[in-house]
Amino acid sequence: MAITRVWIEEGCITCGSSELNCPELFRVDHDRGTATIIDGVDLEPLEDEIKGAAMACPVDVIKYEES
Q1: How many CA atoms lie within 13 A of 37 on its CB side?
Q2: Number of C-beta neighbours around residue 52 at 10 A
Q3: pLDDT of 47
Q4: In a 3-state reduction of DSSP, which class is residue 26?
Q5: Helix/strand/coil (H, E, C) string of 1-19?
Q6: How far is CA 23 from the centre of its chain?
Q7: 21: three-class secondary structure by DSSP
Q8: What is the CA radius of gyration of the chain?
C-alpha cells in the first residue's frame, strides 16, 4: 500500500520531530505554532520517513492515508 495523503491534525506542539524525521516533507512554522506540509512533494520515496515521523510524534497529530 502506498501513502497517498499526509496531514497534521490540530494539537501540534512544534517540537521539530517531523522536520527532523522527514525534512523533505515537513517544515516547522514557529510563527503559526505548528508543523506544515510542503506542497508538491512526491510521497512515494519518503514513505519510511513519513511513517517514522508519525510514530515519533509525541502528540500523535501526524496522520497519513494509504491505498
Answers
A1: 18
A2: 17
A3: 98
A4: strand
A5: CCEEEEEECCCCCCCCHHH
A6: 9
A7: helix
A8: 11
